Amino acid sequence: MFAPRRAASVAGHQSSDSGSRVESMSAVDGADGAHPAPASASAAAASGESHPVLSDVEHILHRPDTFIGSVGIDSNCNVIEFIPREKSDASDEDNGGITTRVYQADVSHALIQLVLEIITNANDHAKRSDSGVRNIWIAFDDGTGTISVRNDGVGILPRPHKMLPDRLLPEVIFSVFRCGSNFDDTESRQGAGRNGYGCKAVNAFSTEFTVTTHAGFLKYEQTWSQNMSHCTTPRVTTCKAENGGTTVQFVPDYARLGVRDIPGAMRYLRSLAWFLSAVTPRKVAVWLDGAKLPISNLKQFAAALSPTGKCVYDDDSAPAFEVAVIPRVEHPATCMAFVNGIPCHWGTHVTHVVNLFCARLTEILKCKERNVTEALLGRHLTVLINAQVVNPVFKTQTKERLSKNPLGIEWKPQDKFWNALRRSTMLASLADELSGLEQSKVQAQAVKGNSASTRHVDVEKLEDAHEAGNPARAQNTVLILTEGDSAKAMAVNGLSVVGRQYYGVFPLRGKMINACGNRAAACKNEEVIKLLRILGVTLTGQQRRLRYDEIMILTDQDSDGHHCAGLILSFLNEFLPEMLRQNPRFVSRFGTALIKVTGPGSTLVGWPRRHGPTASRLHRLHRFY
């Protein structure tokens, strides 16, 4: 699975003959002496010792969250399933015949972590220039729950370990905790392995764990069982030189992991093979259950995930980054990210890319009132990242969060990437929500402090009705909207007749803004803001009551007057459509007189026929005004 390059101080288990109990041993500062550990945690507690000493296997089984995360089942998790189509149905337009679907399953994240440890070991080995790896085979048996991961290329030479000379190297690699080739921090490496626990943790959480490796003309095979409590004697035989590579076959301890539906678990674990195919070196093919997967890079993987079958992709801006963007798919994070081949959806690499996206999309969409945020981005787009980080530092052994990017690698996309994203249709829904959010913010400012029960409002030139805003008013209040100050003077004169108790007057300054379909701009208009305040409009849900019960439009009957009245109606239809539907008397128009008629001993003011004198009385007119 991987070729060791450097050994370190180790602690593990000494095996004897086939079927024998493995006794815990520890090598302290290179000393030869070993201190046997208690047989089990319960035995240590029974001995009366308040501070029992656990062996490595006992510790990982007793406190698995340190190594593989919480052991338990998470219900109703969204799982992405990849479904290859028949070759006859496949075409270049539909991602090479791959479809995806999201379904809900009861998932063991600890089981996923165990499988990832073995898969990423194979990927780490494939990255080495001298590994000779061209294929990685992954297989899942629904009946027995057996999982197999095999890679070709250079295997592990069964030589004696230099620090534990009584054991062969493959046995130390797969059974001795804190043994690994990743402890030299002066060496640049881009692997996922780091702490020397991964494959050993898998061994400890398996009822059966078998390693077979071919190196040259030698074949090594060994099996552990019952959570590493038993192991067979290593078997080394001769073989043909072309049979290179390493195979790890194991049966997880499903009972200890709480997994009852093994076929269901096999189903969601198969997605891990597809994830691997997106991030392996391009020379390496990934096989799943005997079939070669048609994905060899992040671009193909993103296209397979995309609901439209298309993505915007960049791999030219930084040698350590591949980035693709697709419309939103079901995923717990904004980004679907990988670091050195392992899923790592949070951390410094994601923060760097997301911040860059948010800043640039704010410019592209010309946001004025609101910036693009990570939450807003995640509701519309999924960003896929494949980052190769030198000597990465993760938050925990599960490697879900990158806590340090030692070399400060940055992704700086060229303009052609952003131009391609701008030309795509992916930003349409994001732009729509941004527009809605900006409109909501402007609306909130426009109606801030408004209330239908406010008795007094301070608006210049408003002649407010005394009962406006009074919830207990005896009759309807009427707001007269006039076309300028001159019409206001006429209306105010009329108040001397009808009184100011239930009538208010407000002169409009020129023509209002056309509010139809233009609410955001209307909410910035001074006249609109004043009207909203006078009426007590809150724009929160369906408003059933205002400071005024009716609106009377007082404008001239020329074309300008008609235009002014139409703009007022447009305002009411945009901001108070429910009031227009519920109350036919909510808005009315009172047109000014068209003509003034003078005759012998009399003066008449003319309105349209339905409002004023009849035509029979107008035959006496001799002068028009």
> Which percent range fits the helix content?
25-40%
What structural class is derived from the secondary structure elements? alpha+beta
- Helix segment tally: 18
Integer count of domains: 4
CATH architecture label name of the largest domain: 2-Layer Sandwich
**Secondary structure: number of strands:** 28
The CATH topology of the largest domain comes to Heat Shock Protein 90
Q: Write down the Rg.
A: 39 Å
Overall pLDDT level: 80
Portion of residues in beta strands equals: 15-25%
Question: Can you tell me about this structure?
Answer:
The strands form 7 sheets. Strands 2, 6, 7, 8, 9, 10, 11, 12, 13 and 14 form a 10-stranded mixed beta sheet that branches. Strands 15-16-20-17-18 form a 5-stranded mixed beta sheet, sandwiched between helices. The chain contains 18 helices and 28 strands. It starts with 10 loop residues before the first strand and ends in a 19-residue tail after the last strand. It folds into 4 domains: 1-9 and 57-296, Histidine kinase-like ATPase, C-terminal domain (Heat Shock Protein 90); 307-430, Ribosomal Protein S5, domain 2; 447-591, Rossmann fold; 593-625, no CATH class. With 625 residues, the chain is α+β, with helices and mostly antiparallel strands.
Short structural description:
By secondary structure, the chain is an alpha+beta fold.
How is the secondary structure organized here?
Blueprint: E1 11-14, E2 20-21, E3 23-26, H1 41-46, H2 56-62, E4 74-84, E5 98-107, H3 109-127, E6 135-140, E7 147-151, H4 169-175, H5 198-204, E8 206-215, E9 218-225, E10 230-231, E11 235-238, E12 245-252, H6 254-257, H7 262-269, H8 271-279, E13 285-288, E14 291-292, H9 298-305, E15 312-314, E16 321-327, E17 335-339, E18 342-343, E19 346-347, H10 348-364, H11 374-378, E20 381-387, E21 393-394, E22 401-404, H12 415-423, H13 427-446, E23 478-483, H14 484-498, E24 503-508, H15 519-522, H16 526-535, E25 550-555, H17 559-575, H18 577-582, E26 587-591, E27 595-599, E28 602-606
Parallel strand pairs: 6-13, 17-20, 19-22, 23-24, 23-25, 25-26
Antiparallel strand pairs: 1-3, 2-10, 4-5, 6-7, 7-12, 8-9, 8-12, 9-10, 9-11, 13-14, 15-16, 16-20, 17-18, 21-22, 27-28
Helix pairs in contact: 3-5, 8-9
